[in-house]
Design a protein that fits this description.
It contains 17 helices and 26 strands. It is of the alpha+beta class. Strand 13 and strand 14 form a beta hairpin.
């Protein structure tokens, strides 16, 4: 059990944490539709706003005549990029994911917000006004294929800091790959394509804002904004108002998986409301939000290895889509700093990347694959296994280094446990490619993949917890984006204070500092570590208060516990303090008053600011390992039709410690749904001549539903081997993958197909189309 830096990390008995099917507190609102998002926000006398959106992949607005639009009844305000209010209104988003002016006259992707904002009495009037604009477009040559963008004669794109022409080049060189290749007995060399996909879009981004006089705040108007839950610093900076003048009044943020980037429409409403003196709402459609969940990569991979399967040298060259302006480079050049090859014993790794600015789209840090090129090692392991006639799991085990470093030859206990359980689950019998036919004539394929588990201990948290009138409260301002972090934190709070589950209250407070984010389950385990620290301290304060609490009318009776009782003589269970030696002597939470107080309505409170200890994920970027996960896949391929059926997905993972099983299992199902979608169905398609995206709705972009996928078999191991709360770690990002089904198809047919493996592609690979 690795959680040794904090309080009670070595707990061995759990009454709440890890309990399955415990009713959610806030997740119930999402499941029942009670949750209110920015799209649901309304206010009396509310106006609506819409941007002019580009019909071109790359164009500059030379001029625009707004006179006809301005004259339409119901049009209240029209801003152009030249308006003085927009001259220094910067769009400096979280983690640098946006940058630049909020609005300019350059549209560098189709549907980009550009040049004009209309404010009117209704959305329909906004649309009429936008159609009435007379726009002089200067249409430029576009790039919707990054492989074209690296060429010397590629059309120039809008500038990006650090770019040479259209390209930001990055390299990560470890050891000497040429020396590693000299040690090799054999090689595999292949081209790896990482698909461009989007995330699910349950709630399109939106915001509604207005200004009012708040008698409880400092001088000046206060801003009320719904639809944003973690942008308070950015909003105060943009609008040049004190931090305390921003009220983020939405607990539920919506958006997409791991989506930290605010859209321009969410950020512009305060300015529009100030100009018009009325509430203003701006809503994005689902079509507006088909931005990237992952940017496309083309990778050429060469791997040298010995005849026993040991990898000696690796060279990768990547052309990555860096998207248009505002895309975070998290999905491109920063990606090569950590990844799959550092989990191997091989220290001769040469990585170079050309990240190309294009007109394809934008990435706001909404990925579900982390790191992005992880499956280069998945494919390489399978190719090496095929060449040597070995089991792919044995190849992975041969190359995985030990827990402490790449020089560590010891096995990783978590990995070994996952593999042992996974083989039993799947009744694993690996076979050579194209060698096993099922009874119905289809070809059988199987594949294996591993990864280390991430945990974003980089995120710090401030949490306040308190006892008041018999209840334990945890204030939070959100956001709740679907990962149910707050429910897991409430379980930790109940566990450590001894409170009944129903006596723990998640209190929405837009002034609270607790924002339990950080990337899904890996962020949850980090924030849970801080909640655990606070809860342990609160428990001590509750016991101290119990020793001073007196019974009788108005608290003038005898002490609740015998004279001489010490803190260690007491315990708490089900919101009741009792004497260990005589449980009949007890005191409910509802009867406790703080020291020096006779009023049980007074609070006993604790605040803790901190972060979980540094994780191997962050410290070693793969060079150190603790908890891990494994995924297994079986497919059937019809070689006459090209149809692929996933017969079974098996997941055996070690989250260290399960905090909330309902949430964890749901996340695993979700990421496997992402994985199956991107490998079999989902695809972005652009018209090469116009640069227009042809897949921008759910009719065209073939996203599967829960009824279309194979629900994975899941086994959760709990080694307590990580160093977040109780030894927990996240798994969700790392379990999503882009190639395990592709590898299983290759094992079935002997042919490689780039994702998505649609029937026509499979037939072409088989020479039948």
């Amino acid at each position: 059990m690795a959680d040794i830096a904090g309080a009670n990390g070595q707990r061995t008995e759990f009454k709440v944490v890890g309990k399955p099917n415990l009713p959610g507190k806030l997740s119930y609102n999402i499941a029942t539709g009670k949750a209110k998002y920015g799209t649901d926000a309304t206010a009396p006398n509310m106006l609506f706003a819409k941007f002019l959106r580009s019909p071109y992949a790359y164009a500059i607005v030379k001029s625009v005549d707004i006179s006809e639009a301005q004259a339409l009844p119901g049009v209240v305000d029209i801003l152009t990029w030249e308006d003085p209010d927009l001259k220094d209104f910067m769009n400096d988003g979280p983690l640098g994911s946006q940058g630049g002016l909020m609005l300019d006259n350059i549209a560098d992707q189709e549907d980009a917000e550009v040049a004009v904002i209309v404010v009117a009495e209704s959305e329909d009037i906004c649309d009429q006004a936008l159609r009435a604009l007379k726009v002089d477009w200067d249409v430029k040559a576009h790039i919707v294929d990054p492989r074209v963008g690296v060429k010397p004669n590629a059309p120039p794109m809008p500038g990006r800091p650090g770019a040479k022409g259209n390209i930001v080049t990055a390299s990560k060189i470890d050891g000497d790959y040429e020396a590693g290749f000299k040690e090799a007995d054999q090689f595999v060399e292949f081209d790896f394509v990482l698909p461009a996909i989007t995330s699910h879009i349950p709630n399109p981004s939106a915001s509604m804002a207005y200004w009012y006089d708040d008698q409880g705040a400092s001088e000046g108007k206060t801003l009320w904004i719904e639809g944003i839950s973690q942008g308070r610093e950015q909003i105060s900076r943009q609008n040049k108002i004190p931090y305390d003048k921003v009220i983020e009044a939405t607990l539920y943020q919506g958006g997409k998986y791991c989506d930290w980037g605010y859209r321009k429409g969410q950020l512009i409403t305060p300015l529009l409301a100030k100009r018009t003196g009325r509430p203003v709402k701006c809503v994005y459609t689902r079509e507006n939000m088909y931005d990237f969940g992952i940017n496309q990569h083309w990778v050429h991979v060469k791997v040298g290895f010995k005849n026993d399967g040991l990898i000696t040298g690796v060279k990768l060259y990547t052309i990555a889509d860096n998207g248009c302006r505002g895309s975070l480079m998290f999905g491109s050049v920063s990606d090569i700093n950590y990844g799959p090859w550092y989990t191997t014993k091989c220290k001769n790794i040469h990585q170079t990347m050309d990240a190309v600015t294009t007109n394809r789209g934008k990435m706001y840090l909404s990925s579900q694959f982390c790191p992005f090129q992880w499956d280069t090692v998945t494919v390489a392991n399978q190719m090496i296994a095929e060449k040597l006639g070995m089991d792919v799991i044995d190849i992975a085990k041969r190359n995985l280094h030990g827990p402490s470093s790449q020089d560590d030859t010891n096995p990783v206990p978590s990995f070994e446990a996952c593999v042992e359980a996974g083989k039993k689950m799947m009744k694993w019998e690996y076979h050579k490619p194209a060698s096993r036919k099922l009874a119905d004539g289809r070809m059988h394929g199987m594949a294996f993949r591993y990864q280390m588990n991430p945990r974003h201990q980089i995120s710090g948290y401030t949490v306040t917890v308190y006892l008041r009138a018999g209840k334990i409260y945890m204030p939070t301002k959100g956001p709740l984006t679907g990962m149910f972090a707050t429910d897991a934190l409430a379980m930790v709070l109940a566990e450590e204070t001894g409170a009944k589950w129903e006596d723990v209250v998640i209190e929405y407070d837009n002034r609270a500092l607790l924002t339990p984010v950080g990337g899904g389950s890996d962020g949850t385990t980090s924030s849970a570590w801080v909640v655990k620290e606070a809860a342990v301290q609160l428990r001590t304060k509750i016991l101290e208060a119990a020793l001073t609490t007196r019974g009788g009318m108005m608290g003038f009776g005898p002490p609740a516990f015998p004279q001489g009782t010490k803190l260690e003589d007491l315990d708490i269970r089900d919101s009741t303090i009792f004497l260990k030696s005589d449980p009949s002597k007890s005191l409910p939470f509802s009867a406790i008053a703080p020291p020096m107080s006779l009023n049980i309505q007074d609070s006993i409170a604790v605040s803790v600011n901190g972060r979980a200890p540094t994780s191997p994920w962050s410290a070693g970027m793969g060079r150190k390992l603790d908890v891990m996960n494994t995924v297994y896949c079986e497919v059937a391929v019809d070689t006459e039709t090209g149809a692929v059926e996933v017969l079974r997905h098996g997941v055996v993972c070690d989250p260290g410690k399960v905090l909330r099983p309902t949430s964890l299992e749901g996340q695993i199902q979700q990421v496997m749904m992402f994985s199956e979608g991107c490998q079999l169905n989902e695809e972005f398609i652009w018209d090469k001549d116009t640069g227009v995206r042809l897949t921008s709705s759910m009719f065209e972009y073939k996203k599967p539903t829960i009824l279309d996928i194979t629900v994975p078999d899941i086994e959760l191991l709990e080694t307590r081997g990580s160093n977040a709360a109780y030894g927990a770690s996240g798994i969700s990002h790392s379990m999503a993958n882009t190639h395990i089904i592709i590898c299983a198809i290759q094992n079935a047919t002997g042919k490689w197909v780039d994702p998505p493996a649609t029937p026509d592609k499979v037939l072409r690979a088989l020479g039948k189309a």
